[in-house]
């Protein structure tokens, strides 16, 4: 049996190798990966000095970039970056002086490459052309080059290409003869010739970096002189056929007469399907092109592609005559992505987009992955979080990303590689106007057959005469290619609407209005009513989390996380390095809570087309925007899993409309249960059930709703839940869970219940709102003082705390508030015995935390830790407190900058926390660790903070400039 197994394995290997050899023989090529001669052209003199006619003096390995092989310049304070910097404080803050010293440069704005170079560089390789290549068409294939390439064969220039989205292919047939030949490539990564915008993710240091080099496949490829210039497949599901448009070029001196044939076979599904071959006569004159359109019928077994069943076909196209036989394989899916009213439709079924923004984050290489396996890993991770959509912000990924997305089942929105806002504008006749057309046409030709390529945008957040320009752009594409849907550009809420756009990716209708209360009843219905096309929320979230310093060790490639290193050391300088992991987890839990509530608000809004998060993963630039549940490596940070996240972000999500989350036990908890469903089929005869449990997982109530069929839609009504709370006799956290029975779909919400308590000040405690003489006397005599310092803080007055955390990051937005990324709570302290809480600020903290003052403890002992500690922005790392305890003189004190006291009767959580703190003060457990002087505490209410933020620059992001996003044509 073993021998038989070995024989089968041996036979399989022989068959595999044989097929590989056949393919190689049919499409011969010379792979050019490996060592190349190389030279930097700093003075831009290589062309005039004919460097292509001599041996270059250095060496490099391709595929790769200059920085990857330490070619270029060391990073200094004078490095001329490609990317906007709006916070110059790094260059001036005294506390950061050590990071500006030679040998210790730490750039905070983005990841730091090993080397930096913007300009011309030359790459050169000798190849030997076989004799049997005579009569073949020979193409130099550069899968992705950055940015402009010029090619010479020996001393003859072949041409020049500029593309950020597609391969640079050069026809070298007329330049190559059998024998040894020298190929020289000049690559220029400056953006001044065709400026797509220095912050475009196709070029900027904020994300992939403005690298110089060639990545992916590099080869000399041979083809028959009569060859397929283009093959495009247009599915027609209604009529069970595909329209195949074939363009053939004849580069020979002979007329071609023969036939063309097409057939398709599925290759990645449990069910298989194969069409019959369609054959047609075909001819093309010498040195010319011709095209033909054929219909390919499918039978009853036709397989369609969508996110649930991503079935794919290989189309085999053959061109045959007596002298020539050539063929091409094209992967495609039978799918139709259309719009009906304000809904996206996949194969006639409504679909809501649940997306994230991919910004070209590749911290090991500094350039995008060019293997299917790497992209599958990324896209499978994205899909595991319940998402079905990816927007590529101002860049287009290589072909391997589309191949992987087709297999995984995701709807993609690649974009023209432009953010024409900072230093460049559209519609004014600048080079970028035509370049966007060229690039998007290259994208459609190169990737247009991939089923996942469902949407197209011209880029991100433009300036200029944008309405006219983008209307014409959308009209051009609607007329040209019906396989996907088109918008103008992805924009924020203050940009003008593009009337002709088939769908909108737009801000303005997003976010959580938690300035007055917390609830999950409201939706965005009123705001989206004025839009008659699908509305996709632009860049939702952007909720910051504290840095994960364990991530630093992952940077083993071309980038170093010098920004993280600086933030870590600054945290240590502020005596809090031991709290880094706690800050990460506490801020992370709040971040997830915010994403959950914003996503649910969209999912309960009828007719909302979808959302694009910014993001599932961190953004490494623009000051360092740590907005993701995943890091820049698409790996989890430890505070939420894909399984947990997909409870509230999935194709089916139970929802609960809840008026508030903190209750008195003489009330009833009421919730209206709803459902979001965007499935392959309706949920038929679905039974939805609910349970309410306490923290001991004891079931307090349960119920279910009658079986019902739920079609695809947002905010479908299910029924009501009511639970009287009079059985709750002590302060408790309860949990409502809603399930779709017989499935894995479930979601839950915590809420808090407090009994009636007296918050009269106990005789043993002196309650005061100022640190007056009586308070000092009580402390001197060994008594207890509760100081409610709300509204009295001076040291820390500049720090603004909302319940919602920092948006994007405080560096990019010039320290625009809020400045706090949540709170770390000493939840194991007896101070919270009567106030159920975890270590992070959950919803019950809202009326305590939101807009409360914080205290800056910059002069307190290094080991001092408050009971409730707001987590400052990592650009400042101030040691903050909301509530702290200490020994003073012979007495003990609790100081609160939150409004806690007997006067606060209308805020249940504040009232309950004050009750719990009083009980704690009257217990033996009240034994603060630190001894402080009265003067040190008094200083909080007298002296301002010693370190105050200053951006040292007048420039700012467009979002902060008045009328910056309107039609500026000057």
TrEMBL record:
One of its GO terms (molecular function) is beta-galactosidase activity. It comes from the Bacteria. It is an enzyme of class 3 (hydrolase). Its EC number is 3.2.1.23. Residues 226-335 form the Glycoside hydrolase family 2 immunoglobulin-like beta-sandwich domain. Keywords: Glycosidase, Hydrolase. Gene3D superfamilies: Galactose-binding domain-like, Glycosidases, Immunoglobulins. Residues 31-220 form the Glycosyl hydrolases family 2 sugar binding domain. This is beta-galactosidase.
